DNA sequence: CATATTGGTATACTCTGTGATACTGGTTAC
DNA sequence: GTAACCAGTATCACAGAGTATACCAATATG
């Protein structure tokens, strides 16, 4: 039943010789890295200039300390953000976005745009 | 403690008058609509020409009937895909992507690109 | 001295996303 | 008649994502 009775369909599909498995994997990798409820908001917050832990926490409504802590760790491990400890009298911890993180600035902006227009669309339907 | 002793910081933040709460919400909306393990792979599959249920199922390694069924329903409700039933002797069901779905073709392509380069990066580290 | 801030950790809980497996009802093929 | 395909649904189960709440040590503030 593979290449039997669907010549037209086959033509269609073959006319786009894209490697679907590879694409699916790439998509799932990306979702894995930036997925979940909080990672993108955190990146966005840091890119917006928030550096300190509590500062980031306050800038994201609804997030808990635990979630922020966990996600920051994971994202540091994924080299998306950089954690800098300055050994002042009370140690100061600063989070900044890495160059690598900026590599999907485009994705984030696109997603913000899409989310806004989606909300509009829902509102008017 | 709001606008007390951080004039410099305030200046920094105010110099970027972006509405963070709105952005966070938009991001979370987008994640909600396309998030999860399977929605983007499904969209990608349908955009690649797969229309029939089993056809889509076979094109996505690892997905179960249950997940595909659920996700298709949800995405239909979100107007991302269109389900057409042709009442032939055994009914034929076809899924196609809506125009609205194409509105984040850009996001998908960006994410595929990012996922591929991320995998490269991991491999070489 | 009491309170607040910073940068988190600990514990306990809920909830939902996902997976595994089986099944249905109709149709065609051998 | 039995095996296979289509388009799913039903049930159970589990891990992990996320929430709630309390707590810690150090410092600063009143």
Report what the structure shows.
The structure is a homodimer of 125-residue chains. The first copy, chain A, is mostly helical. Chain A folds into two domains: 34 residues, no CATH class; 86 residues, Arc Repressor Mutant, subunit A, CATH 1.10.10. In chain A, 60% of the residues lie in helices and 10% in strands. Chain A has a two-stranded antiparallel sheet. The N terminus of chain A is likely disordered. The interface between A and B is large, with 47 and 46 residues. Chain A binds a DNA duplex (30 and 30 nucleotides) through helix 5. Chains A, B: This is Helix-turn-helix transcriptional regulator. Chains A, B: It comes from Mucilaginibacter pankratovii.
Summarize the structure in short:
Chains A, B: It comes from Mucilaginibacter pankratovii. 2 copies of one chain form a homodimer. Chain A is mainly alpha-helical.
């Amino acid at each position: 039943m593979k290449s039997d009775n669907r010549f037209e369909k086959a033509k269609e599909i073959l006319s786009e010789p894209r490697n679907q498995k590879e694409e699916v994997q790439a998509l799932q990798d990306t979702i894995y890295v930036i997925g979940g409820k909080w990672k993108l908001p955190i990146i966005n917050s840091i890119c917006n200039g928030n550096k300190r832990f509590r500062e980031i926490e306050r800038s994201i409504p609804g997030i808990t300390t635990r979630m922020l802590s966990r996600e920051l760790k994971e994202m540091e491990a994924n080299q998306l953000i950089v954690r800098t400890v300055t050994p002042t009298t009370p140690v100061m911890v600063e989070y900044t976005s890495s160059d690598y993180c900026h590599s999907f600035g485009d994705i984030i902006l696109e997603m913000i745009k899409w989310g806004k227009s989606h909300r509009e669309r829902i509102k008017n339907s």
